[in-house]
Here is the input.
Amino acid sequence: MVNALAQVPSEFLFALGSLRKAQCRSELRLDEIPAPARLAPYAVALGAEVFSPTAATRQVPVHGPAAKAFAANQGNTASSEEDDELATGRFILLYDPDGSAVWEGEFRIVTYIRAQMDAEMGNDSMLGSVAWTWLVDALENHAAPYRAAGGTATRILSESFGTLAERPDTIDIELRASWTPASRDVQAHLEAWSDMVCTFAGLPPLPPGVTGLPNRRLN
Here is the structure.
């Protein structure tokens, strides 16, 4: 292990250390997952899931399936063994010591978020641009400087037929985005992204001055 770490560039090790300092909301479950091997010489990947708030952390959601989960749980005081998953995502940090003209730097952050929307919001023609705004606002709110950002927002309509015809139609929103952090300190970028995943899940923002509790396992 010591020999392996000795082969890792100090710039990437510093970035990994900054990720470990990130403070994420309690509704977010964050774990390290296998990183893609062909995108860059060095990479780390995190998978995130947002579940419906427990009785201890429950807040009134503003949109999406979180609002329905909250309403359903109001009349049920017993705690559930399995919380409802509201959103999922991936956060990948890439590092190439030689840099990249496309990235405009040595680091690149690649992200993916998917969440189910309620019918009214899912059918809004502006949903894609709103999703992109959530990303930009989250980075700005966390003072996470970046450049060369790009992304694609996709709405996915799922309809059921035959024996599954009674299932209601669902609309999911997917956002695939990437950007180049302005420095090797990427703590604020992970915090901004984690807040964005919670926004996709329909959870309200934390009050000013309140920091979410870390709920993650980074090996």
Remarks:
- The longest strand covers residues 85-100.
- Helices lie at 2-6, 10-20, 65-74, 119-122, 127-141, 187-200.
- The longest helix spans residues 127-141.
